[in-house]
């Protein structure tokens, strides 16, 4: 049974890593972002500010807009008191729909996220909202649909994905200096 499960997982991973599948995923992500951003009355920066009002001692480390069954929502991950909290907001009116403590998917991921949170909170001199603003200065016609803190080697960066028309642009911002490090069209 374990061998069959391992074989199935290996086949799924092989199929999903195919560049054709990756292109379809990006196309779908772009289409969903376009729909969600079209419905949204809030910007991502406003959603982050609203979420932080709910957890004022927290630090936003990730945000994205998604399509839910009842419309577009922003999901903002905030680290507060050592806990990973997810605040879901209605993208139309900014109403907070729910605040949940995130379940960790695996111990390895939990350790990685905890390290990211602790070192990120200590190193980041700018906020996620400021990183989005820096990205929008470089791509003024863009609308942020995903933003996250990440490690690039030994450097903490914010990775911001923007949609401008049908073009997705990824902007990497140094979390210490606020300097835009890379702009890449996908």
Summarize the structure.
By secondary structure, the chain is an alpha+beta fold. It is built from 5 helices and 8 strands. The chain has one domain (2-185): Nuclear Transport Factor 2, Chain: A (Roll), CATH 3.10.450.
Mean pLDDT over the residues: 81
Sheet having the most strands: 8 strands, antiparallel
CATH class: Alpha Beta
- Structural class category: alpha+beta
Low-confidence region ranges: 1-22
Span of the ends, CA to CA: 40 Å
CATH domain topology: Nuclear Transport Factor 2, Chain: A
String of helices and strands: HHHEEEEHHEEEE
Number of strands: 8
Strand sequence of the main sheet, in spatial order?
A: 4-3-2-1-5-6-7-8
Helix content: 40-55%
Topology:
Elements: H1 2-16, H2 19-39, H3 44-54, E1 59-68, E2 71-80, E3 83-90, E4 96-101, H4 107-123, H5 128-138, E5 143-152, E6 155-164, E7 167-174, E8 180-185
Antiparallel strand pairs: 1-2, 1-5, 2-3, 3-4, 5-6, 6-7, 7-8
